[in-house]
Design a protein that fits this description.
With about 550 residues, this protein is α/β, with parallel strands linked by helices. The protein is about 50% helix and about 5% strand.
Length: about 550
C-alpha cells in the first residue's frame, strides 16, 4: 500500500510508552483483546490473578477493564496504610513470638473490600447516606438471625465508610490492637517493654502471651466478616453490572518484604473467598516471579499449589498478536497527523533484514511481550528524521540501543531476586549464539565466581552469590553453581535450552515451562536470546 504523500517520521515520535501507566494516548485506541477481558470480567470464571512478566500487558488489561464502562474499584496498595500496620508495636512483637498473622491479614482484606463495596454501591459518603444505607439493611435483614452479626459489624464500622481507605484500615488495625491489649491484660505491659527495651520474658509469660494473642488474631470479627460477603451479595443484586475490586502494582516497595509477601498471600486467599459472590470479583495483577516468591515464603503444612492454579489468568502473546499491537500503534501515530488511510508495519519497514522477514527479525528479539516490540520500534524511530520508511541499516542501528536497554531492564526486573545477575551474565559475553554447557571450562566458571563474589561482596540473601562463594573460596567445584546460574538465566529469559538432542529448544515463555537443575547436563545446548546478542557481543553471524 502506498504511504500518504505527506507522511514523515520525526525522531521525537513514538508509538506509545512501554509502561501502561504512561500510555494513555495509545493504549485505549490500540488495545488488542486476546480474549482475556471476557475471561477476567466473568464473575463465574475462577481466574482472578492476572499473571505475567513485567511488560506482558497486565496493567493494560486492568485499565481496559475500567475503560469499557464496567464498575471498577481500584484499591492502591499505598492507600491501605500498610506501613501503619507493619509498624504496629504489638503486631511486630507478636511476629517475634512466631504468632501467625495471616488470619488478621485476611480479615483486614475482607474489611477493606466490604467497606469499598458498600461505599461504592450505596454512595456512602456522608452521615446522611450512611443512615439511609443502615436503614435499608435493618429493614431487609433485622429479622434474619444469620445476619445479626453483620448488622453489628456495620454499626461498629459504619461511621468510617465515607472516609478514605487509609483511615478505615488504621481504624480497624487499632481496634484489633485494643482487643489484643484487653485479652493480654497485665501481660501487655511486658509486651510493650519487651518491644521497646528488649526485656526478656519467661517461658511461662511467653507461652501465655502466645496463647492469648493467637486466640484474638484467629477470632476477632471472623464470623461477621465471613458472612458479610454473603450479605453483600444479596444487597448488590444487579448481576448484569458486577463490581471489580482491582489491585495492581504489588511488586512495588510499599511495605517491608517480610510483611508484603504475607499480605499478598492473604490477599490471594481473600480473592478465593470472593468466588462465592455472584456480583463482585477481586482481581489481582502479579508478576510470575513475585507469585513464586509468595508461595515459597508463605508455604505452610498442607499447602497444595494446584488448588491455587485455577485462579491464574496467564497473559501470553503469539507472534501474530504482537504484530497486531505494532500495526495498530503505527496506524494510530500516522492517523493522528496525516490521514485516515490504514498504515501497518509492512508499509514502513523494509521487507527483509538479511534473509529474514523484518517483522520476524524484530519479534525474535523480544520476550514475546508488547513492551519489547514497542521499545524496539521506538528505537527505530529515533534513528531517523523526516523519512517515511525505514532502511535495514536503521533497524540494525536501533537494535544496538534496544539490546542494551532491554538487558538493563532485565537486571532491574529481577534485582529483588538476583541483585548480582548483571555480574554473572558476563559468562555469556562474546560466546557463540549456540553452545554446549561443556564448552565452558571449570576454570572459566571458577574465575566468574571469584570476580563476581568480590564485586558483590556486600550483597546478602542472593542465591547466586551464596552458591558462588564456596566456589570462589576453593571449597568446592563449580558444578552445582553453574547448573543454578543456567537455570536462572533460563528463568529470566536470557537463554533457551535444548536439554536432549531429540527435543526442541525451550524458552521460559513457551508454556511457562520450568527447568530443574537436575535436567541441566553437560550435553545440554544453550541458545543466547537474540534480544541480548548486540549488548553481549555474541558471535551470531552464523546464526541469523
Amino acid at each position: 500500500m502506498a504511504l500518504p504523500s505527506k507522511f514523515r517520521f520525526r525522531s521525537s515520535d513514538t508509538i506509545g510508552a512501554p509502561d501502561a501507566e504512561a500510555d494513555d494516548l495509545f493504549l485505549r485506541a490500540c488495545f488488542v483483546d486476546t480474549g482475556d477481558i471476557t475471561r477476567i470480567s466473568d464473575c463465574a470464571d475462577p481466574r482472578r490473578i492476572v499473571l505475567g512478566r513485567t511488560g506482558s500487558g497486565k496493567t493494560a488489561l486492568l485499565k481496559q477493564l475500567a475503560s469499557d464502562g464496567r464498575r471498577v474499584i481500584p484499591v492502591a496498595p499505598e492507600s491501605l496504610a500498610l506501613p501503619h500496620i507493619t509498624n504496629s508495636t504489638i503486631l511486630r512483637f507478636l511476629a517475634e513470638l512466631n504468632i501467625n498473622p495471616d488470619p488478621f491479614f485476611k480479615l483486614l482484606w475482607r474489611h477493606v473490600f466490604a467497606a469499598e463495596l458498600i461505599r461504592a454501591h450505596f454512595d456512602v459518603k456522608s452521615q446522611e447516606k450512611k443512615s439511609s444505607f443502615l436503614d435499608q439493611v435493618y429493614r431487609r435483614f433485622f429479622q434474619d438471625k444469620k445476619h445479626r452479626e453483620n448488622i453489628e459489624w456495620l454499626e461498629k464500622y459504619g461511621p468510617s465508610f465515607w472516609e478514605d481507605t487509609e483511615n478505615r484500615v488504621k481504624e480497624y488495625t487499632e481496634k484489633v490492637e485494643q482487643d489484643l491489649k484487653a485479652k493480654l491484660g497485665a501481660k501487655y505491659g511486658n509486651v510493650t517493654s519487651g518491644v521497646e527495651s528488649g526485656v526478656k520474658l519467661t517461658m511461662e509469660e511467653r507461652q501465655d502471651i502466645v496463647h492469648k494473642a493467637q486466640h484474638v488474631i484467629n477470632n476477632v470479627q471472623i464470623s461477621a466478616l465471613m458472612n458479610i460477603i454473603h450479605t453483600l451479595d444479596e444487597l448488590i443484586s444487579d448481576h448484569q453490572k458486577p463490581y471489580y475490586l482491582v489491585i495492581d502494582r504489588l511488586d512495588e516497595n510499599w511495605v517491608d518484604d517480610q510483611w508484603r509477601l504475607r499480605l499478598i498471600r492473604a490477599l490471594i486467599d481473600t480473592a478465593r473467598d470472593f468466588y462465592a459472590m455472584r456480583h463482585a470479583k477481586v482481581i489481582i495483577a502479579l508478576r510470575v516471579d513475585l507469585l513464586e516468591r509468595v508461595y515459597e515464603t508463605t508455604r505452610d503444612p498442607g499447602f497444595q499449589r494446584e488448588k491455587y492454579d485455577s485462579l491464574n489468568l496467564w497473559v501470553g502473546w503469539t507472534r501474530k498478536q504482537l504484530q497486531t499491537v505494532l500495526n495498530r500503534r503505527i496506524n494510530h501515530l500516522v492517523e493522528q497527523r496525516y490521514t485516515n488511510q490504514a498504515v501497518v508495519s509492512s508499509d514502513v519497514l523494509p521487507p527483509k533484514i538479511g534473509k529474514q522477514d523484518t517483522i520476524d527479525y524484530m519479534i525474535d528479539r523480544t520476550l514475546m511481550r508488547p513492551r519489547d516490540i514497542i521499545q524496539f520500534f521506538n528505537a527505530c524511530i529515533r534513528q531517523v528524521n523526516d523519512v517515511p520508511t525505514f532502511a535495514p541499516k536503521d533497524i540494525q542501528r536501533a537494535e544496538g540501543e534496544y539490546s542494551r536497554d532491554r538487558l538493563n531492564a532485565l537486571y532491574d526486573e529481577w534485582y529483588a531476586d538476583y541483585p548480582s545477575l548483571k555480574g554473572f551474565v558476563r559468562i555469556l559475553e562474546r560466546r557463540p549464539a549456540i553452545f554446549s554447557v561443556s564448552d565452558i571450562s571449570d576454570d572459566e566458571w571458577s574465575t566468574l565466581c571469584l570476580d563476581t563474589v568480590a564485586e558483590y561482596e556486600l550483597i546478602e540473601g542472593d542465591p547466586l552469590i551464596d552458591s558462588a562463594r564456596p566456589v570462589a573460596e576453593g571449597r568446592c567445584g563449580p558444578q552445582s553453581f553453574k547448573r543454578l546460574l543456567l537455570q536462572v538465566l533460563y528463568k529470566v529469559g536470557l537463554i533457551g535450552l535444548k536439554l536432549r538432542p531429540q527435543e526442541s529448544i525451550q524458552w521460559c515463555y513457551d508454556g511457562w515451562r520450568n527447568v530443574s537443575t537436575a535436567e541441566l547436563t553437560e550435553e545440554a545446548r544453550v541458545n543466547i536470546h537474540r534480544l541480548a546478542w548486540r549488548a553481549l557481543g555474541v558471535n551470531y553471524r552464523d546464526n541469523i
